[in-house]
Amino acid sequence: CQRGEAGAWHLLVLFWDSVVGKSDELRDPSARGRCSRTTEMATERFFTVEEANHLLPWLEEILEQTAPLQRQIDSLVGEVSDLTKKTRQNGGSSTEDALKQRRGEIIGLTRQVNELLKEIADRGIVVRDPGRGLVDFPGLLEGREVCLCWLLGEPRVAFWHEVNVGFVRRQPLY
Which of 15-29, 68-82, 125-139 has the lowest mean pLDDT? Predict the structure, then answer.
């Protein structure tokens, strides 16, 4: 996955690192090496296009649940940023409680999003950008490992890309 493609997810992990310091709870080790630049494969699970398409209604339902949670997180992250600036300007006493509350809300929402994304990862699907609904299904095409690429809103899995490139280099299946 190219660094910018999973922007919302990576920002969430970076935020978690900086504010909470527990990003290991968010990182999904099962996604490493699958449809990414690393060479090790986490599992041997490969999807056919038909199998991937069969999972789309379920996948859409879960990804649509993450969207409002992600919007809440984004809003709270903005509030935390503003409160952090105020804390630095005035010594922090008047904003510390609000800052602590917002961080707690972010942690709770992040856990909810993570639980939903874990359901997807547990099936062997790699979530690239939960905000956009971008996922990769590890697959085989002409005997080589590829990523079957799907974006929320597309009617079916109709694109693929090599494991060492991302969304911008995807190609039509047919």
Answer: 15-29
CA dist 93 and 86 (Å) reads 10
Candidates 114, 9, 116, 12; CA nearest to 61 is 116
What pLDDT sits at residue 3?
34
pTM above 0.85, yes or no: no
CA distance 8 to 130: 7
**Rounded CA separation 125/118 (Å):** 10
First-to-last CA distance in the chain?
Answer: 23
Cα dihedral 55, 57, 59, 62 sign = negative
| Contact indicator for 77, 15 with CB cutoff of 8 Å | yes
Q: Where are the alpha helices (DSSP H) in the chain?
A: 7-15, 49-90, 96-121
Helix (H, G, I), strand (E, B) or coil at 140: strand
Question: Do residues 117 and 131 lie in contact, with contact meaning Cβ atoms separated by under 8 Å?
Answer: no
Buried/exposed code over 155-167 (b: 16+ C-beta within 10 A; e: otherwise): eebbbbbebebbb
Predicted pLDDT of residue 69: 93
The predicted pLDDT at position 140 comes to 96
What are the residues facing 147 on neighbouring strands?
138, 161
With a cut of 50, say whether residue 25 has pLDDT above it: no
For tokens 């490139």, the residue is 165
